[in-house]
Automatic annotation (TrEMBL):
One of its GO terms (biological process) is IRE1-mediated unfolded protein response. Signal peptide: none annotated. PANTHER family: DNAJ HOMOLOG SUBFAMILY C MEMBER 10. Gene3D superfamilies: Glutaredoxin (3.40.30.10). Residues 2-54 form the Thioredoxin domain. This is Thioredoxin domain-containing protein.
């Protein structure tokens, strides 16, 4: 979320976490102003929201 200050603060941490969890979990950022259907489908209603998914 470009306007979400806490989301912006986590940006570097996302990259680090993504490297640490490679092969264990996917780490991604989604801009819910662009991907509103995805966010609604996943039940994302506040920002930042952190979810972990298995690699498959």
């Amino acid at each position: 979320m470009p306007w979400c200050f806490p989301c912006q603060q986590l940006s570097g941490e996302w990259r680090t976490l993504s490297k640490l969890l490679k092969g264990i979990a996917h780490v991604a950022q989604v801009d819910c102003t662009v991907q509103s259907q995805l966010c609604q489908k996943q039940g994302v209603y506040s920002y930042p929201t952190i979810r972990l998914y298995p690699p498959n």
